[in-house]
Design brief:
Layout (H helix, E strand, L loop, with lengths): L13 H13 L2 E2 H8 L3 H13 L3 E6 L8 E6 L5 E7 L4 E7 L4 E7 L7 H19 L6 E6 L24 H9 L3 E5 H12 L11 E6 L3 E7 L2 E2 L34 H4 L1 H10 L7 H10 L2 H25 L3 E5 L7 H14 L2 H4 L3 E4 L3 H18 L2 H7 L3
Parallel strand pairs: 4-7, 7-8, 9-12, 12-13
Antiparallel strand pairs: 1-3, 2-3, 4-5, 5-6, 9-10, 10-11
Helix pairs in contact: 1-3, 6-13, 9-10, 10-11
């Protein structure tokens, strides 16, 4: 990508986008293999390859010849031609990274400010850090800005809506703010959704691009789920899919607990990180963050252990219902509470195996996300690259010869 405003854009048609994604998803191809896969005539293949190589999205290379003859000339997707600014806004901290178009992290920074802080203070700092990272990597201009937030996101505006955790950020025009700064497409997504996307691709075997049906549970200060269904992020009609923290608890435990959303008996009000912290404070424990809770658990504090174990069971109840409804092949547990280890996860497994239907759990995999921080920014890069490189209008507006 170049920032030369006087250069004439090379238009990519829908066929060129098909070719681009053939190279992205299936690796290097020869002209012959492209023609065989697409059914295009040789001149059409050549014309579209020329467009992609001119703008740097494809690069020629020599490919091994299985017959032992002369190496064939192939073409591969070039993920290093541009970078994406990825900003993962958690409750108390934010991770900023530059990623390539295939999700490789070039450089990153973390700051101790996030959703619980004033956006008018946080946003200028994010831009300043992003500018520094761009200068550090010699990427003058990003091709996109991709942002994760820990609450609902309205489709398709990217605005934050009905956000108890991010009350000061509601109706803040994040896409408009960053577009004004960088003049590139800006995408905003829920943090659990982008982690679900990351794990769906990370866990896929070589025969598939990604797992088709997966649920990622973000167990942090609040509770949320990212759902991959038939290979796509499930947003719901208004962006609220996966809001499991506000499902009513099963049974009597926590049924009368007031929630931050204004309702009574939400599972988050008993099993969310903020609720656990409040309960432990009432017992004179010196806790203010989930790191403090994890530390108490690791020290064997009886009250902390009991609260985390109970949280695992309550969350497991909700997950078992989600499994019966969605029938995923994988459930991944992330967020700060997952750092409590088997104490927390065993409660989830106990309820899932005990309450979900045998057909839904027959080949079900439940695991922890050990790289939760990386998962956020890499998932953001995947989401942005899919949107840009899957849309001829967006791609033509960014990549020029």
């Amino acid at each position: 990508m170049t920032s030369n405003e006087d250069s004439t854009p090379i238009p990519m048609d829908e066929g060129t986008i098909v070719l681009l994604n053939l190279l992205r998803h299936h690796g290097a191809q020869t002209r012959a293999s492209i023609a065989e896969s697409t059914g295009w005539a040789r001149p059409t293949v050549n014309k579209r390859l020329e467009r992609l190589t001119d703008i740097g999205l494809a690069t020629p290379l020599q490919m091994d010849n299985s017959t032992g003859g002369r190496p064939a000339k192939g073409f591969a997707f070039n993920p290093d031609v541009a970078c994406i600014i990825c900003i993962d806004i958690a409750t108390a901290y934010t991770t900023i990274a530059l990623c390539t178009l295939d999700g490789k992290i070039l450089t990153s920074r973390e700051i101790p400010r996030g959703a619980e802080h004033d956006p008018h203070t946080v946003l200028p700092e994010l831009c300043e850090i992003s500018d520094g990272l761009l200068a550090e990597t010699e990427h003058g201009t990003p091709c996109s800005v991709s942002i994760a937030v820990t609450t609902r996101v309205e489709e398709p505006t990217g605005q934050i809506i009905e956000a108890p955790v991010m009350r000061h950020w509601e109706r803040l025009d994040l896409p408009g703010f960053f577009n004004t700064r960088y003049r590139v497409p800006v995408f905003v997504e829920n943090d659990a959704n982008i982690r679900a996307l990351y794990k769906a691709r990370k866990l896929a075997d070589h025969s598939e691009r990604q797992i088709s049906d997966l649920i990622y549970i973000h167990a942090g200060m609040g509770l949320g789920a990212g759902i991959i269904s038939h290979g796509e992020i499930l947003h719901g009609a208004f962006g609220g899919a996966g809001d499991i923290g506000h499902i009513h608890v099963f049974g009597q435990t926590g049924a009368d607990s007031p929630c931050r959303c204004g309702n009574i008996g939400c599972v988050e009000a008993s099993a969310g990180g903020w609720a656990i912290i409040q309960s432990l404070k009432a017992l004179d424990r010196d806790v203010s963050t989930l790191a403090d809770v994890v530390s108490l658990v690791q020290q064997g504090d009886l009250e902390a252990v009991q609260h985390v174990r109970r949280a695992g069971r309550l969350i497991g109840d909700v997950i078992s219902a989600a499994i019966n409804l969605l029938n995923p092949s994988h459930v991944v547990i992330g967020g700060e509470l997952s750092q409590c280890g088997e104490l927390f996860i065993s409660g989830i497994r106990e309820r899932v195996w005990g309450r979900a239907q045998p057909l839904a759990t027959k080949n079900l995999h439940i695991e922890v996300c050990p790289d939760d921080s990386r998962a956020g920014v890499i998932g953001l890069s995947y989401a942005a690259a899919d949107k840009i490189l899957g849309n001829a209008t967006l791609a033509n507006g960014i990549f020029r010869s």
